[in-house]
Amino acid sequence: MRAYLQLVRLPNVFTAMADILLGFLLTHRRAEPWPQLALLLAASSSLYLAGMVLNDYFDREQDARERPFRPIPSGRVSAGTARMLGLVLLGLGVLLGLIVAAWAGDYRPGLIAILLAAAVYVYDGVLKPTPFAPVVMGTCRMLNVLLGMSVSIDPWSGAHWAAALGIGVYIVGVTTFARSE
Predict the structure, then answer these.
(1) Contact 90, 41 (CB under 8 A)
(2) Distance in angstroms (rounded) separating the CA atoms of residues 77 and 13
(3) What's the pTM?
(4) Taking the alpha carbons of 159, 165, 168, 169 in that order, is the dihedral positive or negative?
(5) E strand or H helix that includes residue 170
(6) In 3D, which of 164, 108, 110, 117 has the Cα closest to residue 141?
(7) How far apart are CA 55 and CA 39, in angstroms?
(8) Dihedral (Cα; 42, 21, 1, 83), 10-degree rounding
(9) H-helix or E-strand containing 113?
(10) Phi, psi for residue 180 in degrees, rounded to 5
(11) Interacting residues of 4 by C-beta distance below 8 A, sequence separation 6+
């Protein structure tokens, strides 16, 4: 169990939840309807955890050289199991987004969950070693904030878009800086 908790980097999931809460509370006066908020938190958490698992899956050869203690190169979690776990978590995140969409009668939660899942997979599996990686990571965080806003009954205002974009730009900067460390 410890290897799986290390693989998903469980303590980091709260950063994704903070994005959802930011988006939700920007578009609602309080945490109501709480069941939809809970499902959005679960969808975001699932997508974030998927990203952590798929990151290690796609980096397994590099980790074998540089971080052999990580769960996959150490053999505590097989590569196939990690891949399957990552894909299941991606699917669960999308499913939860689609459930919220159906419940709210609004396509946005489902669409954003699908876009976020695609961005997570493309980041981890294709673009991470490229110069585009920071922009995709920032896009993931922006989409996560938008997922939190997605059950708003009112249209998003310029301030809503600015908040989501601001988080995205911040993460582009952090990711760019971290790549040069």
Answers:
(1) no
(2) 20
(3) 0.93
(4) negative
(5) helix 158-179
(6) 164
(7) 24
(8) 60
(9) helix 108-122
(10) -95, 0
(11) 71, 77, 85
Query: Cα angle at 75 between 73 and 78, to 5 degrees?
Result: 95
- Taking alpha carbons only, the member of 16, 17, 50, 41 closest to residue 151 is 41
Write down the pLDDT at residue 34: 93
178-181 CB contacts, 8 Å cutoff, 24+ apart:
179/133, 179/134
Cα–Cα distance measured from residue 18 to residue 22, given in angstroms and rounded to the nearest whole number: 6
- The DSSP-derived string for 67-99 is -TTSTTTTTSS-HHHHHHHHHHHHHHHHHHHHH
20-67: pLDDT as tens digits: 999 999 999 888 889 999 999 999 999 999 999 999 999 999 999 999
Q: In whole angstroms, what is the distance from residue 163 CA to residue 123 CA?
A: 22
User: What 3-state class would DSSP assign to 132?
Assistant: coil
Alpha-carbon span 38 to 54, nearest angstrom: 24
Two tokens, residue 91? 């699917």
Burial of 178 (0-12, 13-18, 19+ CB in 10 A): exposed
